[in-house]
Amino acid sequence: MAAAGAGRLAAAALLFLPVVAVLFLIAPLVAVSIGDADVGFRATLIRTAESRNLSLAAERSRRRLSMYTSGAGTQAPVNKNRGGGDYIMQFSIGEPPLPVSAEADTGSDLVWVKCSPCNGCAPPPSPLYDPAQSSSSGELPCSSRLCQALGVFRQCTDDSALCRYQYVYGLSGDHYTQGVLGTETFTFGDAYVANNVGFGCSDTISGSQFGATDGLVGLGRGNLSLVSQLGAGRFTYCLAADPNVDSTILFGSLAALDTSAGDVSSTALVTNPVPARDTHYYVNLQGISVGGSRLPIEDGTFAINSDGKGGGGVFFDSGTTYTFLADAAYQVVRQAVTSEIQSAGYAVVGGGNYKLDTCFAANPQAVAQMPPLVLHFDGADMSLNGGNYLTAFPNEGLVCMAIMSSSDVSIIGNIMQANFRLLHDLDSMTLSFQATDQC
């Protein structure tokens, strides 16, 4: 574990840009179909150039937080911005297979692609999917289980009618995608075939162009997500701090952490009593330490609210760049980090265009000099180096805390997850992690 920790400290100096936008390239394995007991496939994670705009990433993170705290819209991700921290997943849909590139998101469930014709869609990099041109396309009625799973986004007046949806992405309601829920054959790589995957065929996009992608793939805990529909049971990924290093995401039988590669810690996934919020990967965060000292954060600060609305709580989200902490905890953490930075001789300055409220005049090397920040989960401690909670802006001579304040829910974002292998195990209801310097 000591070797892995040293490697992570060295890699932290490379973390000038967050691990927030990658390309999922599915490696061919064996041909199987949805519902098979031994589901297993892998993907390579490649960071895309568009991930490097940290200003957009910060704004996207704030929008995402507002979606999570709005109540009614907690099943959907926030409005996506090109360059603002998206994942891209490449696969094929239909028969004959049509290659598509879609954003992948562990914080939502619905799988959808832009369908031809599409109103409001940005010019696509390739032809849009047309169900009329696929021999494997199917339709789902309003009475279907997957249509029912849409919840507040379901638009049905007759159970025998086609299942229409309007998936909303913001508090104002003017960012949404809408279309018809159907089924299709999804092909990953050259050989992994999943038949009858439920997905949204979107014919309208409003307010969000979703960059140059063809749609979105939900990887949350709900019935609509790709993970649930494939019956994968678990998946693991690792986000490399070094932008030049590719990493992988593994599904089903291939998803495991090797104890010979370092210590593995596990904490229980927590169930949110409000179904609309339970798609997220909640955990029980009990406290935080900085520089070896436990911070005076009041017990219950990170608990899911008992008011019946399901607010509060803490969850891991690969689609959010920065980390958010409930304000009572954020203020304590901010004070502790500021004290450490000032003790090292750096002055507090404004965040400029990045709109971050805790920044310092420092060079990137200062990130690797900072002491660990430890998240104390139920049964597991996650020790984070400077690169997991600070981010450097070399051109401006700034180092800023990659943590923001939240009035409600707390979110463990991408930067804080970098250089950890994370295993989301829905079968055992645990989230496990392992520090590494080799994603």
TrEMBL record:
Residue span(s) of domain Peptidase A1: 87-434
Gene3D superfamilies reported for this sequence: Acid Proteases (2.40.70.10)
Spans through the membrane: none
Cellular component, GO, one term: extracellular region
PROSITE patterns hit by this protein: PEPTIDASE_A1 (PS51767)
SUPFAM superfamilies: Acid proteases (SSF50630)
InterPro entries: Pepsin-like_plant, PEPTIDASE_A1, Peptidase_aspartic_dom_sf, Plant_Aspart_Prot_A1, TAXi_C, TAXi_N
Molecular function GO terms recorded: aspartic-type endopeptidase activity
Biological process according to GO: proteolysis
This protein's UniProt keywords: Aspartyl protease, Glycoprotein, Hydrolase, Protease
Family: Belongs to the peptidase A1 family.
Name by which UniProt lists this protein: Peptidase A1 domain-containing protein
Organism: Oryza punctata
